[in-house]
Amino acid sequence: MKTSTDWSLFRQSRMSRKRTENDTESGSGTATPVDRFGFLKQEHASKARTTTTSSSTDQDREERKVRKWRKMIGVGGSDWKHYVRRKPNVVKRRIRKGIPDCLRGLVWQLISGSRDLLLMNPGVYEQLVIYETSASELDIIRDISRTFPSHVFFQKRHGPGQRSLYNVLKAYSVYDRDVGYVQGMGFIAGLLLLYMSEEDAFWLLVALLKGAVHAPMEGLYHAGLPLVQQYLFQLESLVKELIPKLGEHFTQEMINPSMYASQWFITVFSYSFPFPLALRIWDVFLSEGVKIVFKVGLALLKYCQDKLVKLPFEKLIHALKTFPEDAMNPDTLLPLAYPIKVSKRLEELKVDYEKTIAKPVQP
After folding, report:
1. What is the pLDDT of residues 134-143, one digit of tens each?
2. What is the Cβ-side half-sphere exposure of residue 254, based on CA atoms within 13 angstroms?
3. Side-chain half-sphere of 322: how many Cα atoms within 13 Å?
4. What Gene Ontology molecular-function terms does this entry list (predicted)?
5. Please, which residues bridge with residue 40 across strands?
6. pLDDT tens, 41-97?
7. Terminal C-alpha separation, the chain
8. In whole angstroms, what is the distance from residue 180 CA to residue 58 CA?
9. pTM confidence score
10. Out of 3.40.1380.10, 3.40.50.720, 2.60.260.20, 1.10.8.270, which CATH number does the structure's domain 118-214 have?
């Protein structure tokens, strides 16, 4: 197992991809063009994943932003907890504006609580990877190539990306044998591996599913996907309450959230959303919890409702899986999502759902 080496190689490859982008844009490169996140450009019709040339003003703004963040978190995150205690509203506002990409991996570990788990469990990850066996190993191997197949880090069969992804998923399936492995976990682990080492990604996965900071999310992957069922129940009610015209149309066309929103929750938008938008959502998700998934989903449906209410069933299903490019712009969608109030209603709907599933089945 070459955890730190593989991560170092990937960081070097990210730098080379930036050079490839610049060469391609200037017409001097012959390498396969990739965007700034490492996805092959020609495989993505959406412009949302491509990189445009930044102006010097944009670069200056980004550099100032990075300096602010470095001052806020300190060396290796040493000042983070102190700053959060002193200025929580500043931290929340900056996270919502987007964490600088060069600091994203570290900040994700700090806000999720995974860094503390790592420090409290030295050697555990290595033990799980090297010395334990998992009943899910064949399933993991089968699914590896389906995770971000157009990303350069995961493309090579048995390459460092696929090997790291296998190690993280195998380790978790041993760490929590009740959950084991479920296919949607691959996209979450894959996303994390683009920003941190294997061991760091593993402990962040543990922090999410076991609830280091927010409510545990392991129910997303238990048999029957019980937490997914709860979230879909809550989302359906919120659509009817907050977007009644669209909610009524969904009822008429017999559309329910399981037809379009299951992956929103199972992969936290990492499966089908443009990568820049998924990253911005993950910044907030790790800081504020799952309510941002509801907020983004509701904002997206509301933004597109004038078109959606005119569509019959077949076209509606297609539209709910292929949202227009302008709707997927993080600077458009997220400001619409943040003001939506859902916390109190989610708690009430959770109680309603628990009452519903507790009712005895009528003969």
Report:
1. 999 999 999 9
2. 1
3. 8
4. GTPase activator activity; small GTPase binding
5. 34
6. 754 444 444 444 557 788 888 899 999 999 999 988 889 999 999 999 999 999 999
7. 56
8. 44
9. 0.88
10. 1.10.8.270
